[in-house]
Design goal:
485 residues, three-stranded antiparallel beta sheet, Aspartate Aminotransferase, domain 1, 35% helix, binds pyridoxal-5'-phosphate, 15 helices, alpha/beta
């Protein structure tokens, strides 16, 4: 367990750069001039902007300190369920920043972008292999954007058949973005409850599936971290009524090399490259949510498509049934490059092993913490496990208190109060990149916190105590994100 709780946080006071600056300090040295001097234009000699005078060390320390008040996957375990905050190998960042890629202008013609187009073309093929689907678009810039694009494809399919439908089935274990994406596309989401095992039953779907329902949108593995075991039977039922099956494949980190969604009845799915394929999730950075479809939906994919012809790569617009363009330029190419580098460096065997380890780690945590925390669905899980605060209710300690206290132990809290089907949910996703030692520390920290809940609950109510920013009014912080002071 991490030592000396209460003193581990970095409590450093750091002034603004303007307060730090001292007239005459300098942080650069220019090389000796080797050309004739030339007088500057008048406009460039006017009073400069109000920048502080700083030395190099002033600036380096300032930003290093600020970075230490933050928490990232490079700092420690970040078991944020649903987000797959795994450590991504730095080599993939390096490949993506090669100057030929990072310096390429998105308006370059295809003839001058052959390298990038080749990588996009091959990445599509790798993703098709991993998912068991036939055709891919890399354009969407996020998971939810991929969902919307997938919904547009389903909409276009029904439109072409001449009978638009009005509803989409969305289970209670779907990711929150699913009903929103369906509604944005004009469909009415029809909620369906998961069964006592936390998964969908064929009977529940049979009750709501009809000929006015465009299809079903299933997050698989679902937000309880459970695999939808009845997927094929549900797909058969939906197909028999003319509907399509959408899979939110953002959790594919749990099934690579083990399940191909295209083989169990899925017609359309999106992946989150920024979860599984070497781009960290969150922080407002660029994402990528490729959409994968079976052959019968290929003609509806967004344009332009990357096509290979005699060893040359082209961007082709001529797909009259396409839903159109969904992203500026080619989408998030930097994220695609990292995914390509990750897939190539791992190879099929190691991608499968990554998923196996992700599942093993989650099950290990589930088994070791289930006596300590309430486990609502006591069965093998996939990449994440979901507990609740039910056992702590008598001590008037809630999920939020335990999550905040974990920060004092040096861990990023898990996802809390999601999924909604579990009251006071604590959703832990360790990912494959955490070692047994790190996971054991996390488990011991959680056990210590649960003991504190019994013996000194106020320690939890007041947590975190050793972080730069203490317990915040969450509502105000969300509406007014100024955390200073
Ligand atoms: C299962 C699932 N679906 C969809 C999304 C949405 O992805 P994004 O945040 O990129 O829009 C997420 C995000 O974590 C997710 O976990």
């Amino acid at each position: 367990m991490k030592e000396s709780v209460g003193t581990t946080g970095l409590i450093l006071n750091e002034p603004l750069l303007w307060e730090k600056g001292k007239k005459g300090r300098c942080g650069f040295s220019l090389p000796r001039r080797d050309v004739e001097s030339f007088p500057l234009d008048q406009e460039l000699t006017a009073e400069g902007p109000d920048f502080p005078d700083l030395s190099e060390v002033d600036v380096v320390r300032h930003y290093t300190r600020l970075s230490q008040w933050n928490f990232g996957v490079d700092t420690g375990m970040y078991p944020l369920g649903s987000c797959t905050m795994k450590y991504s190998p730095k080599t993939n960042e390096k490949q993506a920043s090669l100057s030929g890629f990072s310096g390429a202008h998105p308006l370059l013609p295809a003839s001058l972008s052959q390298g990038a187009l080749k990588i996009m073309f091959e990445l599509e093929q790798y993703l098709a292999e991993i998912t068991g689907m036939d055709a891919i678009t890399l354009q969407p810039a996020a998971g939810a954007h991929g969902e919307l694009t997938g919904m547009l494809v389903i909409y276009a399919f029904h439109k072409k058949k001449g009978a638009q439908r009005s509803k989409i089935i969305v289970p209670d274990t779907a990711h929150g973005t699913n009903p929103a994406s369906a509604a944005l596309c004009g469909y009415r989401p029809v909620p369906v409850r998961s069964n006592e095992q936390g998964i969908l039953s064929v009977e529940a779907i049979a009750e709501v599936m009809d000929e006015d329902t465009a299809g079903i949108m299933v997050t698989n593995p679902n937000t309880l971290g459970l695999f939808e075991e009845n997927s094929q039977a549900i797909a058969d039922l939906v197909h028999a009524k003319g509907g399509l099956v959408y899979c939110d494949g953002a959790n594919v980190n749990a099934v690579m090399g083990m399940v191909k969604m295209g083989n169990i009845g899925v017609d359309v799915m999106q992946l989150n490259l920024h979860k599984t394929f070497s781009t960290p999730h969150g922080g407002g950075g660029p994402g990528s949510g490729p959409v994968c479809v079976k052959k019968h939906l290929e003609s509806f994919l967004p344009v332009p498509r990357v096509v290979e012809e005699n060893g040359r790569y082209l961007l082709v617009e001529n797909y009259p049934e396409s839903v159109g363009k969904v992203s500026a330029f080619h989408g998030s190419v930097g994220v695609m490059l990292k995914a390509y580098s990750y897939i190539r460096s791992m190879g099929p065997k190691n991608l499968k092993r990554a998923s196996q380890l992700a599942v093993l780690n989650a099950n290990y945590i589930k088994e070791r913490l289930k006596g300590t925390l309430h486990l609502p669905y006591d069965r093998p899980c996939m990449h994440e496990c979901v507990f609740s605060d039910k056992h702590q209710a008598t001590q008037k300690v809630a999920t939020l208190d335990m999550a905040k206290r974990l920060m004092d132990y040096g861990f990023h809290p898990p996802t809390v109060y999601f999924p909604l089907v579990v009251h006071g949910a604590i959703m832990v996703e360790p990912t494959e990149t955490e070692s047994k030692e790190e996971i054991d520390q996390f488990i011991e920290a959680f056990k210590a916190i649960v003991n504190e809940a019994k013996e000194a609950p106020d320690l939890l109510h007041d947590a975190p105590k050793s972080c730069k920013v203490r317990r915040l009014d969450e509502t105000t912080a969300a509406r007014k994100p100024c955390l200073a002071g």
